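Can anyone check this?
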Amino acid sequence: MIVVNTEAIPGYRVTEVKGLVQGNTIRAKHLGRDVAAGLKNLVGGELVGYTELLVEARRQALERMLAQAEQLGANAVVNVRFTTSAITQGAAELYSYGTAVVAQEEA
């Protein structure tokens, strides 16, 4: 599956648009990560626990979006975007979306 955040795929021609596809996951913070983040706020630096949480959430949302594209018969997704939003205190949604297409390699 080809996945790009642009409207076109270099070297390919879009022959069919299958439609909007999306994937999301909602993740809650973990007490251990909160304690570590609170300590890190005192000295500064990367909040590694939260970075790992978002990396995993992004991967899962992308996998769900690609599964939906595959069900539609697409072989590529263009204009892929990610967004996050707070759901409740301590929980956030990571959402990915794009346009599922059939793309053929240009001769």
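Reply from J.R.: I decoded it. The chain has a mean pLDDT of 87.
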